[in-house]
Write a structure and sequence with these properties.
Blueprint (H helix, E strand, L loop, with lengths): L1 E9 L6 H13 L2 E7 L11 H12 L6 E6 L3 H8 L1 E8 L3 H16 L4 E6 L9 H9 L10 H10 L4
Parallel strand pairs: 1-2, 1-4, 2-3, 4-5
Bound molecules: 4'-phosphopantetheine (PNS).
């Protein structure tokens, strides 16, 4: 288990500029970051399939070079970390509303795997209101998502919600 190798887990449905901001900050702290798309095999959900999310992430993280890799997993995050050899987990924090959810997850993961540390990074203030859920809603209801998601993804997001 390498503490300088971190997993950055999430749904990434789809990846936003807020996620990329967290990833950029993670690379300052860690030697290597694995962005891992979590999915539920039994109950598929989401706008993009896990394979599409991985492909989008691969495309928009190519700019970061070899210290970033992309993968997907189902099951427990800490089991995935163990399989991968990662000793740390990265989570992004936005406003106060994230805290309760993140606190519970961190404490549960710590209970299951006390040797794996969760590290919180705070997104730039321009991303404080960005979330995949809101971005999808804005796109579906005809709003402007420019600047909220990586530009190669903008058209594909609009097409997915029937605005292509
Ligand atoms: O981007 P999200 O949806 O906030 O990410 C949540 C995620 C994927 C990190 C969380 O649901 C998770 O870790 N899922 C894997 C299943 C698991 O380990 N559950 C117990 C965590 S307490």
């Amino acid at each position: 288990m390498n503490p300088r190798f971190a997993v950055y887990p999430g749904s990434f449905d789809p990846v936003t500029n807020g996620h990329l901001d967290i990833l950029r900050r993670g690379l300052v702290v860690f030697d290597e970051v694995r962005v891992a798309v979590a999915y539920n095999q039994e109950k598929p959900s989401g706008l993009f399939t896990p394979a599409e999310r991985v492909a989008l992430l691969e495309e928009v993280t190519a700019q970061f070079g070899g210290r970033v890799s992309i993968d997907s997993f189902h099951g427990l995050l800490i089991d995935y970390c163990r399989r991968s050899g990662a000793g740390s987990i990265i989570r992004g924090l936005r406003a106060v509303a994230d805290f309760e959810y993140e606190f519970q997850m961190t404490m549960m993961n710590r209970h299951l795997a006390p040797d794996i540390e969760t590290v919180f990074l705070m997104a730039d203030e321009q991303h404080f209101y960005t979330s995949s859920r809101l971005v999808k809603e804005v796109a579906a209801l005809g709003g402007n998502v420019h600047g909220l998601v990586p530009s190669p993804l903008e058209q594909r997001l609009l097409a997915k919600v029937g605005r292509g």
